[in-house]
């Protein structure tokens, strides 16, 4: 059993890491930190873990012999913690946005911060296992993608990879409210959002450059991303509806073959006609469907659980690859379905 | 046209007062106050009122010649504002909890405050028009009931009034989240409450003594109220399921006759088999249904829009009675239905 | 008072017509028909109308002297009813899809039916008052637009009208479930749709050619519409997120000026930064917001109540124009806001 | 590995059995039947199981050597299937209502059917493992309880078992819509139920005599149950708020001690202050909280996932006991929490 720690465990992704790790066959969760909750039981902050996770929050990690550390710290905090963790010899998987954007100017533009750990920025492997598994297997440090990027990159990567679409793509993304985190805000106040869908940060969300960066890596050329997030009155799950323009027309069947072939053997990709949030919620699966809408227009839909495949599940999938475990270890169960 | 002002207009009940008053045939909304929002347009805080309410928030009322002032201030603040308003000669309708409980010790127990306006406490008429219209018509000062009390008192009053039930009643109440106000909290954070029903303050909610007080007035004897509020994943509306024990058994038809007779001619009471939140939302109606559950057990269900009949609509209904207007003036429209 | 009848009154749009007409100052609802419910009270099918609508359903209209008849019949049924109604001298407003598409081949392609009233097809004026008020004022027969078309055409018309965008537009539309009608289906079964957003009929929804037709009329040239409807877990309301490509770049302020100018004086259009479903629900308003997303890309968002501005409210707005009433007669109230 | 079959696998409980069995360490799902779907893949009806369940539906079981058969057939159908299954030597767990009520007259009254398998009725052990584990361990045939009974019996059993409460109890139950099954109905049509809580069958739901029967067995005396089910706008989960009257007053701490002691060592009972639907959804846990509401009144709240602990999970828990497996085999994971 590998020993794992979670730094910053009071939020939703921390709780989700614990939920998943507590039944992992090869990894044992041995420590979680939280400054505010130091000394209290993890199962006090996350009552659904009572009977599964018996440790208490530490203020900071008290030991330095973890095999793997997940940092579920806020943006801006991770880059102060990661260097020491890497030095300790642990494999590190950072769930924040600190190591996703490789260009420090781009990082500063979107996060409003000077990057304080440029040295490790270059070492961080962007962790989408379906696309970058070879790099991930060799990595000691993973920058775990955001939920919107995971969902939309998986939808569009096959088309860019095969050079089938033009460089401009539109991503109309619909997220559940748990994606906004555990802290109450005006936007996630139930009377505000409970019977509506609300667009926000149209064209100005910080996941936009992250999506662009990854798609450019896959495409090998410039990509223009028009990204429109919306907040759904749903607690878990995410759907992206992506619009692209084919270089040359292809019929729907040919497009579906591209996807079937591209994702052949990928355990957590499920091709379907219409992706279902209910089918993926609770699981690490991503469902993808492809439609044509008139000549040369392709519409790709993708659905994930934002806290699993969009965060903690994918982090564990990366962890599995890094240690040479079965890729689906600890994640091999279906979504709720209903 | 009577001139109306709203003190404390930034919250949901303030917005709702404005929504209803802007189409009232006999009352004109001429001022709203808000300390934080002084100087900004009312329609900035309540964007759905753009085109209907063109005034700006004042820090405090700048004039003293209003015919009626609605105080939608927090508990504890109303009692500092009301005395001067009453002195100004305006009719005052207070939507806070400050003047509902007639006993200052009971008030202190449940609100944690010493009452600072005992003089007016006795003058405040508890404003449920279906029960106390004669007093309301003569009143200059109304204490407007809470949403839970309105919904459950209307459900149980006929049975207590006719002396048909024992003194102990159980009220299992289900409220939408707008009843919790405009301020984001952990309890109303969408990921917390968006897919659940959550009981809270079981046996210890401050609406409990208010319900008891009003039912005792109707019954003419002691009443014991067991009150269990729950938070629904719904934005507007409230349902109360009330359980009482008949002194002597009666069949369902006889019980329904009691209600039909008690509420005969009451514009905003609608007897039905199963009350529907959808039918009352957006309106001042209260739907009531009566069922038997075995011998001597009666179950009374009632549904209202917590912001209309449970707050601002009832305040306007009280206002109508005080000025001798048609009771339904400005309120004579149906709920959304769907 | 003009005398109105509703043919096909058992569904949601029929109920909504009654809800709105019962407080119209110039029009009186005097008859409603329903084959299945003939002889029963309208308020039995629509219990929220009890106390407002006291008539019973007729099997078919028993008189022929109505000033205006609203046909809320299913697609395919309207074209058998409308000719006689027009002959009777009544003004007719058809809420079905039968008279929206002017080309009978296009109609057959999307509705699967031969058109049986080609004579009146040419007379039907497509009723979006903000765009076609001059024609509507002179019309005796209106084809009332669908909800998706209303919401997306209002969003895009100013840009097409001023020749500012390229011909291909993408409309990512999110509808509440009441748009699917009163008949239970697998798609609207709560366990299926209650915690998800579900795309459907991507690129193949019959509102697509209707949107195209209206936008081409506004643009004066060919338009390509990529239309993706989604089903929201919300009962009322609709949001469209529309993507267009500017011919020449313009900044956001200039774009907003285009909208402010285009819709100047239009009572039911409200320009805003982010449209809010909650603000328009219950009302005839359409909220529109415009954003830039990188150079030359414009994102236009629009929100309506699908049953009001998207159906019955707009029908009444058309009726008002036809009779020379105030355009907002019977519709001059704000949305719920919360 | 024991070989399991599911008869009647097209509905929600069938899908849930498959979801749980596909990761059970000691039981293998080898057959599922469905008359309508015979010949199609199980993962076509339950797409979330693609990659986990690879069998196709059979019209009827083609073999007779199953170790255990779960019958997820409708009420009235089970009693025609069960006798043969029992004869085959399989252990049988029936999820329908056919074998829950031991008195055939009571069965006829509530289900409207003559019982056609009285012989096996007496053999069926009512399967709530926390209460009747000794009988279950020895049983070959289990009648699996309904969701409402499971949730409310677990809430009230400790008080009745210890003789602490009077015989009359009130159960105000709130169910998600998946409890109503996979077939669309008016009641579960999203526009009808999506923004409301709806009481139904007050005092006349067929789970009422089942609850009474089980509580009488626990209490050893007559029990009167007043049972009020409500439909929530939630897809999964259930909450019961139960009201009982103490024979002699006890404080809250003493009551909680009763529960802690009664359920000591029970893996799937979690005592808490306020039960959370989110904490139990996706899992086999039941959360229970106890409150006082004035002298001698006790309010017990309980929450379960209606499809897991309320149906398929409990069926597997019973299966585990029958075969001597670890009670939590295949069920040992926490709920989603968020």
What is shown here, in short?
Chain A has 338 residues and is an alpha/beta fold.
Detail the topology: elements first, then pairings.
The structure is a homotetramer of 338-residue chains.
Chain A: E1 2-7, H1 12-21, E2 27-33, H2 42-45, E3 57-58, E4 68-71, H3 78-87, E5 91-94, H4 104-111, H5 118-121, E6 125-126, H6 129-138, E7 141-143, H7 147-161, E8 168-175, H8 190-193, E9 198-199, H9 207-219, E10 224-231, E11 238-245, H10 252-262, E12 269-271, H11 277-280, E13 286-292, E14 297-304, H12 308-323
Distance between the termini of chain A: 34 Å
**CATH class identity of the largest domain in chain A:** Alpha Beta
Main beta sheet of chain A? 7 strands, parallel
Beta-strand content bin of chain A: 15-25%
At CATH level 2, the architecture of the largest domain in chain A is: 2-Layer Sandwich
CATH fold assignment of the largest domain in chain A: Dihydrodipicolinate Reductase, domain 2
Spell the H/E element sequence of chain A: EHEHEEHEHHEHEHEHEHEEHEHEEH
- Please name the fourth-level CATH homologous superfamily of the largest domain in chain A: Dihydrodipicolinate Reductase, domain 2
Broad shape of chain A: globular
Structural class of chain A: alpha/beta
Oligomeric grouping of the chains = homotetramer
- How many structural domains are formed by the residues of chain A? 2
Description:
The structure is a homotetramer of 338-residue chains. Chain A is of the alpha/beta class and 338 residues long. Chain A has two domains: 2-123, Rossmann fold; 148-306, Dihydrodipicolinate Reductase, domain 2 (2-Layer Sandwich), CATH 3.30.360.10. Helices cover 32% and strands 21% of the residues of chain A. Chain A contains twelve helices and 14 strands. In chain A, the strands form two sheets. Chain A has a seven-stranded parallel beta sheet with strand order 3-2-1-4-5-7-6, sandwiched between helices. A seven-stranded mixed beta sheet of chain A has the order 9-10-8-11-14-13-12. In chain A, helix 6 (129-138) runs parallel beside helix 12 and helix 7 packs parallel to helix 9. Chains B and D meet through strand 8, strand 9, strand 10, strand 11 and strand 13 of B and strand 8, strand 9, strand 10, strand 11 and strand 13 of D.
């Amino acid at each position: 059993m590998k020993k794992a720690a979670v730094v910053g465990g009071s939020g939703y992704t921390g709780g989700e890491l614990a939920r998943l790790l507590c039944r992992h066959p090869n990894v044992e969760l041995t420590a979680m930190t939280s400054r505010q909750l130091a000394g209290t039981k993890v199962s006090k902050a996350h009552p659904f873990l009572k009977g599964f996770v018996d440790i208490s929050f530490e203020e900071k990690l008290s030991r330095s012999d973890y095999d793997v550390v997940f940092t579920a710290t806020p943006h801006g905090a991770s880059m102060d913690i990661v260097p020491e963790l890497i030095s300790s010899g642990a494999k590190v998987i950072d769930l924040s946005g600190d190591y996703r954007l490789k260009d420090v100017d781009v990082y500063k533009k979107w996060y409003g911060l000077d990057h304080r750990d440029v040295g490790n920025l270059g070492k961080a492997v962007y962790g989408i296992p379906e696309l970058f598994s070879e790099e991930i297997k060799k990595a000691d440090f993973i920058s775990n993608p955001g939920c919107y990027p995971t969902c939309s990159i998986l939808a569009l990567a096959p088309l860019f990879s095969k050079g089938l679409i033009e460089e401009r793509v539109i991503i109309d993304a619909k997220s559940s409210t748990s994606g906004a985190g555990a802290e109450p805000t005006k936007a996630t106040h139930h009377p505000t959002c409970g019977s509506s869908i609300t667009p926000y940060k149209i064209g100005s969300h910080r996941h936009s450059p992250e999506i662009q960066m990854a798609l450019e890596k896959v495409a090998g050329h410039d990509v223009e991303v028009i990204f429109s997030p919306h907040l759904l009155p749903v607690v878990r799950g995410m759907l992206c509806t992506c619009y692209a323009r084919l270089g040359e027309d292809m019929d729907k069947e040919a497009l579906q073959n591209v996807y079937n072939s591209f994702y052949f053997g990928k355990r957590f990709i499920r091709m379907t006609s219409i992706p279902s949030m209910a089918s993926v919620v609770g699981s690490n699966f991503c469902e993808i469907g492809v439609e044509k809408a008139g000549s040369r227009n392709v519409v790709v839909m993708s659905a994930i659980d934002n806290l699993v495949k969009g965060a903690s599940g994918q982090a564990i999938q990366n962890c599995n690859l890094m240690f040479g475990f079965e890729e689906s270890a600890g994640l091999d169960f279906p979504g709720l379905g209903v």
